[in-house]
Specification:
This protein is of the alpha/beta class and 233 residues long. The chain contains seven helices and 16 strands. Helices cover 28% and strands 28% of the residues. The longest helix has 17 residues. Bound molecules: glutamine. The site of glutamine has 12 residues, from loops.
């Protein structure tokens, strides 16, 4: 879905990003190991966030570029102007709201717990995690929740794929991660089971640098249009 031929389509309307026929670049920061929101197939980036970002870039007549990096570096990259916005299945939370501005929420999610299916009988409620080895992705809301679990031994990985491998090979007991990517990892893998319903709902939004009101306004207007035309919920 990323437009690799940005000069190809002349824009008659909505030419905010058009300077002498050259499209301005809009750079999205993300961590592309988070199917179905952002993931890679070969060199192509796919997923819900990629499609939304592409739709925003199209509305602004800008060329979308994607910068893939560790999740826990995204907001620093944004504040250092290395990316224009972040779209990474990022949940709105009070600590992040002090660092960046969020767009409207566009997706509801929650943290889930992935375990080995063989252990399922031991996981009847959230206290089952106490004292366990828990893997997370560094810097996520799942990481925050794991840090609160009594006597847990928390390992923070850069990629969820590493956390899931650690679960599969027995070096951790559980992974706390977002429900949809958890289901993606567990799909077709009989050895894994996903537990939902233990944690509160979170809302995903895109993040924009504080003070970049111009881009914030443009992206919010694009969201308004996408909500009106059904591209976004
Ligand atoms: N929604 C979670 C968070 O905001 C995880 C996002 C992610 O890992 N891409 O921390």
């Amino acid at each position: 879905p990323v437009d690799d031929n940005p000069e190809g389509n002349g824009a008659a309307v909505g030419n905010e990003g058009d300077v002498d026929g050259e499209k301005l670049v809009l750079t999205m920061g993300t961590e592309a190991g988070f199917e179905p929101f952002e993931y890679k197939e070969g060199d192509n980036y796919l997923g819900i966030d990629i499609e939304l970002a592409q739709a925003i870039a199209d509305k602004l007549n800008m060329e979308l570029q994607i910068s893939d990096m560790a999740f826990d570096t995204l907001l620093d990259a944004l504040n250092a102007d290395m990316v224009d916005f972040v779209a990474a299945g990022m949940s709105i939370d009070p600590e992040r709201e002090q660092q960046v501005d969020f767009t409207v929420p566009y997706f509801n999610a929650s943290q889930a717990v992935v375990i080995r299916a063989a252990d399922a009988a031991n996981y009847t409620d959230v206290t089952a995690l106490e004292g366990k080895k828990i893997a997370v992705q560094a810097g996520t809301t799942g990481n925050d929740l794991a840090d609160l679990v009594k006597d847990a031994d928390v390992s923070a990985f850069t990629a969820y794929s590493e956390a899931i491998s650690a679960l599969e090979n027995g070096s951790v007991d559980a992974v706390i991660m977002d429900n949809f990517p958890a289901s993606s990892f567990a799909a077709g893998n009989e050895a894994l089971q996903v537990i939902t319903g233990w944690y509160e709902e979170e809302q995903y939004a895109m993040a924009i640098k504080k003070g970049n009101t111009e881009l914030h306004d443009m992206v919010m207007a694009a969201f308004d249009e996408m909500i009106a035309d059904g591209t976004a919920a």
